[in-house]
Amino acid sequence: MKVVIIGGGIAGLTLGILLQRRKIEVVINEKWNGIQDKGHAFLMSDDGYSILKNFIPYSKEELLSKKVNRFSLKRKDQEELIKIQLNGWHCMKRKNLISFLNASLDRDTLQTGRSFSHFIFEKEKAIAAVFENGDVEYGDVFIGADGSASSVRDAIFGKVNFSNTDVKEVVGISAIQALASQDASVFQKYQSKEKGLAFGFIPVSSDEVVWFMQYDATFSDGSEELSPQHLSSFCKEILKEFPCEVKDILEANDFSDSYVWKTRDFDVLPSFHKNNIALIGDAAHLALPFTSAGTTNAILDANVLALLFEQFNDFKIIFTKYYNNRALALASQIEQGRELKKLFLNPMMYSERGYILPLISDQKEHNVTEVIKPLKVLYFTDPICSTCWVIQPILRKLKLEYDEYLDIDYHMGGLLPSWIEYDKGIIKNPMDAAIHWEEVSKKYDIPLDGDVWIEDPLHSSFPPSIAFKAAQLQNKGKAIVFLRRLKEMAFVEKKNITRWELIEEAALGCGIDTAILKKDIAGKGKDMFQEDLRLTKENKITSFPTFLFLDGDETRFTLKGVQAYSRFKEIIHQLMPHALKKEKTIHAIELFEKFNIMTTNEFAFLYEVSNQISELILSELFEKGFLKKIKNKNGLLWIHKQDD
Fold it and tell me: b/e for 66-88, b at 16 or more Cβ within 10 A?
């Protein structure tokens, strides 16, 4: 089979490489002469990037990119609305990627100077592509990868109905080392509160940033398109109230290399093919640039098609399965782009809590239906309670085996208001707490380092407790992961988790928006914490952990302190005789994918092996590069390497 690709951009080149790796004959036809390095830079998700990394053994070029780990949205007065961790995003220059892809191609695969004219058909099937220079390329299958203004698409489907250009975008790359080196991992965006106007930038190398200005098309009289000088003046004037760093980026930009992008999209086509001609990339589907999905989708299209060419010989089957695989997700992305446009043009109509991230795979969850679980459990705890650290393996075992039945409601008990107000048992001061933690560590053989009370003592458990309640406002599941991370930082890493910078670090790592978290800590989070204290007092809870198992509104069972796991199971089965434990066998790595950080004895308990066997398994995974570890004087934390 011979595949003729029309278009030598990212989609066409990627598909050509993937087909060649499968020993399929391919010719790529590009209208421009030579390698085209037009365009600036873009974001790509790990979905696309991981496919490109497979080309490295074949390429003579390096795959140059910058990892983007965080998104920040601010108002033009520097008020931060959103600050959240991103997962697996990369920023790269288009010319770097095009060079990399060209270096990965077999010689003579790419034919340049070929601008598509029409197809030659025989019995309704295309047998050749004809180009304006008179060249003719015969083939068995033809792929249109010629961009949003696709001539191939027009030839097989006619003109599509593009949406109106309601938003325009100016793009550039500025050589500005100070900003690029300030934080080389943040996608920073400033957005006006009053109107559709935003400026964003991302470091693309150690001394460059790619930037974009999005604006309501009604702001423009067209003058910004006349010359680089006009464009420069237009951008500086419309952004004059934005921060100084925005002005610095504009001053460092060469506007002769910038352009105005009239953003638009079109509905998902009813099919991506007609007979033996198919479309990929922007030729097949086009979303608004708010989603940063275009490049990733082009690579994913190519990968899906190449896999299908490897599995099937019938182009009808290949193209039908290709459409079925891609169309639904692409339709969702197009809708997300349109929703983002509405929010952009009407910023007064939404708050940061309803903001959708401008990245397709990191979009905010909407309309998530909470699963109703039949057995209600009130869990009273505290971020610095050492006994609550001891029972962490039990909580995780319950999640593994009985999660579908248990609705565990976390409540903060307020263990340490301050040292002035604390007088419980033998612990009177931070030094007593240090001694107690060391005793608990030895008694239960768990990593627990009391030196934090000597080196950087916590003044109260209230700040991390309030932070947890504030995190619950965003996502209850993430809040539990956040609480666990705070405990790891305090008990093993000797960190004072009352400090905001450490609370923020933990929250970012758990997918919590820390700009919103900070506001909620000062507001509703405090109110929720006070309600927890009231509930603790009302139920006469005086020690932690305490579990209340409810039957309706009535407490049927109470468990306090360290209890055997069998006691939890016994209560569950008394309240729910038909409850079934999950019996699924889980691999060691799967455990780390579910709980990315574990102690040695926690892994042993969950994996149901001895501590000695646990150490052997974990050490082997460490040697193979699957895990890393944090060591303190009383033990280890094992961390899934993927979560670095």
Answer: bebbbbbbbbbeeebbbbbbbeb
Taking the C-alpha atoms of residue 283 and residue 376, their distance in angstroms, rounded to an integer, is 52
**Closest by CA position to 305, among listed 289, 333, 284:** 284
CATH number listed for the domain at residues 375-575: 3.40.30.10
Q: Which token pair is 456?
A: 């950087």
Kindly report, as residue ranges, where domains of CATH 3.50.50.60 are found in the chain.
2-65+92-163+265-343
State which amino acid sits at residue 574.
Q
State the pairing for strand pair 546-551/554-560: antiparallel
Radius of gyration of the chain (CA): 29
Burial class (CB in 10 A: 0-12, 13-18, 19+), 554: exposed
The span from the CA of 246 to the CA of 248, in Å, is 5
282, two tokens: 């922007």
3-state helix, strand, coil in the chain (%, to 5): 45, 25, 35
384 DSSP 8-state letter: T
- pLDDT (tens digit, 9 = 90+) per residue, 442-479? 999 999 999 999 999 999 999 999 999 999 999 999 99
Helical pair 500-509 and 462-472, crossing angle rounded to 10 deg = 30
Residue 260 φ/ψ region, left for φ over 0, alpha for ψ in the -120 to 50 degree band, beta for the rest: beta
Round to whole Å and give the CA distance between 525 and 309: 54
* Euclidean distance between CA atoms 412 and 382, whole angstroms: 5
Report d(CA 102, CA 20) in Å as an integer.
13
Q: Taking a C-beta distance cutoff of 8 angstroms, is the pair 409, 598 a contact?
A: no
For Cα atoms 405, 410, 412, give the angle at the middle one, nearest 5 degrees: 165
Strand partners, 260: 170
CATH number at 588-643: 1.10.10.10
| Residue whose C-alpha is closest to residue 488's, from 448, 437, 451 | 448
The residue among 146, 157, 149, 155 whose CA lies nearest residue 6 is 146
pTM for the full predicted model: 0.86
Architecture of domain 2-65+92-163+265-343: 3-Layer(bba) Sandwich (3.50)
pLDDT digits (tens, 9 = 90+) for 90-127: 999 999 999 999 999 998 999 999 999 999 999 999 99
